[in-house]
Amino acid sequence: MEWCERTTSSPTNTPVSSSPPTGSPPRAIMSPCAACKVLRRRCAENCMLAPYFPPTDPLRFTIAHKVFGASNIIKLLQELPESQRADAVSSIVYEANARIRDPVYGCTGALWQLQRQVSELQAELAKAQAEIVTMQFQQASSQALSCTGLWQSQEAQPQYEQGPHCCNSFNNANLGSAWGSVWTNYE
Length: 187
Fold this sequence. Notes:
Layout: E1 6-9, E2 15-18, H1 34-39, H2 58-68, H3 70-79, H4 82-101, H5 107-156, H6 172-186
Antiparallel strand pairs: 1-2
């Protein structure tokens, strides 16, 4: 409320001025919170909804009011300690948005859909991991076969004429003869 200067006539016809008390600055006119705007009521200084529904975002309260009703929102906030009210309002607004999108299941439907999507992605990941293991096994098998073929061809030719081996896995029966040919050729 703003202070304004008024002059009135007194019975003695001397003007009297009404001004704000000295020492206190004039108060600024504040805009009502979004809840009070939507409900078309005067916003009191101690309005419980003002901190959570600012005047700049009236849609937020409109959605929550449409689904839950203003009196239910106020009752819920009154039951909670002040430290939990902001989180409660965020949850109310989220649930109200979900109820408008899916009137039957609300946010539960969104959670169910996300869980189903996670399950599908986990199954897809398991399938991809199985394919990787299969490819690694096939690569190891083909490498083992090529090493075995190379090993058998190396037994027929002198060892010092061959290049580096393709793999480090030797069987114990052929290991002695391979090393023996290497040692005898260099002596």
